[in-house]
Amino acid sequence: MRPMRAVPLALAFALAGASATTVQADAFKPSKADQVKLGKRAAEDLRKQDKTKILPSTDERVKVLRKVASCLLSVIDDGKDPWEYSFDVIDSKEVNAFALPGGPTFFFTGLLDKLSTEDQLAGVLAHELTHVRREHWAYAYADNQKRALGINLLLIFTKASSTVGNIASIGNDLLFNLPFSRKHEKEADEQGLDMMVKAGYNPTGMKQVFEMLSKVSGGSKPPEWLSDHPDDKNRIKNMQERIDNMHKTFPPQKPLPWAK
Ligand SMILES: [Zn+2]
Description:
Elements: H1 9-14, H2 32-48, H3 60-76, E1 86-90, E2 97-99, E3 104-108, H4 109-112, H5 118-133, H6 136-151, H7 153-159, H8 172-177, H9 182-198, H10 204-216, H11 224-228, H12 234-245
Parallel strand pairs: 1-3
Antiparallel strand pairs: 2-3
The structure holds zinc ion.
Zinc ion binds at residues 127, 131, 180, 185, 188, 229.
């Protein structure tokens, strides 16, 4: 996704609460229930936009995406998580995929067309699911608020009380554009790899996606998913190390039906 834009000042007040003097990062972290609400709202808004062409459930790509998703969820969902997942494909050349807070997940045909195996698809999906499960957006949001507070402390003291705790004031812009930290990307890679192995996929698939995207980004415009997931060279190396350390033999990768 795109680089973060300036945070509207009003957002700094959104979850400030009355205790601005003793605020800690977690005081700004939207609850799990709020994450679900926010994600659903943003997903609904996205589906309503004229320019968003969502593929029908009968489309082969949607069916495969949902099949792989339910396979991954079967190894992590113990029935206690509040997340409300949904999996959709947007007809667009954009090379991208993203998960909104709380679970709604979108893949673009531009990315699906570049994947050749179910294991690669599982790699992207497992990475995104980890962002949801580990509440990475909510932590990024909390950090963002804390920074805004540091800058606007004086304003907070004078105005916070009038603009308390309203999640409705969190704009979609911040839902779609807030970047994840490097620490969280690493966690999504690592736990995503573990998740896909547990579900019976070959973890090399995830590594291949990053390798493929690094090559594609050699052109003038980097794919969005990669620019959202900046690759320091260590990232692919770290994945390989984690795979090697599993000391396992993995099943052969399954070709996607539309792979050339
Ligand atoms: Zn990521």
